[in-house]
Specification:
This protein is an all-alpha fold. The chain is built from five helices and no strands.
Length: 170
Amino acid sequence: MSPRRFLPYLALLLSGCAGGQSGYPSLAKRPIESAPVAEVAPPPAPAPADPQLSADIARYVAQAKTGAVAFDAAYAKADKAVHRASGAAVSSDIWVAAQVAISSLEAARNDSVSALASLDTLYVERSDQVADGKARGGLADIDTARSATLAQVDQQNDRIDAMKARLPQP
């Protein structure tokens, strides 16, 4: 290959570099860049919950705590049953006993799950009331209780799943 064949292409490429400087915008500060910045007002503080709503929230939180106590008591029994059945054959008596203990454990957390569902429903109802102008505030209180209950139910689910994983599966 001869270098002469590439000479026209090289000339074409270099011609793109040789142009006037007049077509580029100025890098000087523009007037809009010197304008004052408006301050954003802080959001209004959330309105406190009314006494009836606070009582409902407290009732559901107490229900979730009752569920947690029942779950912890049933967990100790189920853990022992699963430990005994960890090497047992599927459908053996000891394996079935462990499955029954896990079922009892799942039933023991019903209060927690029910409290979470009630808090979810309460949040949706209160959101609708606030949007319609029939009520003010309380959403933050419900959300706080709901988040704590959700974390508790998630932890219970994780413990049940870990227990099930220790048993041989059919």
